[in-house]
Amino acid sequence: MKIAVEDSKRCNIPAVRKRLKTIMDAGHRAVIFDRFVGVKQVVVGEGTHFFIPWVQKPIMFDIKTRPRNVPVVTGSKDLQTVNITLRVLFRPIGDQLPRIYTTLGIDYEDRVLPSITNEVLKAVVVSK
Asked: Looking at the structure, do residues 47 and 84 belong to the same domain, yes or no?
């Protein structure tokens, strides 16, 4: 790490200097994509981290609890149309971020949450 810090001080190219270190804010984690290995199974936490430019790329994830409103139009037992908006609080599990990134991608919430909330809401409305 000491070599990377000294190299970043001596480097006169701003783009390379910027790519040598990444600062992770509180409530964020990163998965490292390496061009030779692929997605590493290591999750990087808060703080300053050094990466090899053009070889390693950090993919940032927000792991704070966030709300999401999902509107659903469903039918009731007596065949009436019901408009419901469900507010879901969600966050990814930090240790599972490499698996989430490789299977679902960076936009995992757009792929997973609507289908789960639609299914759960329709089951609840029909049963009442």
From this structure: no
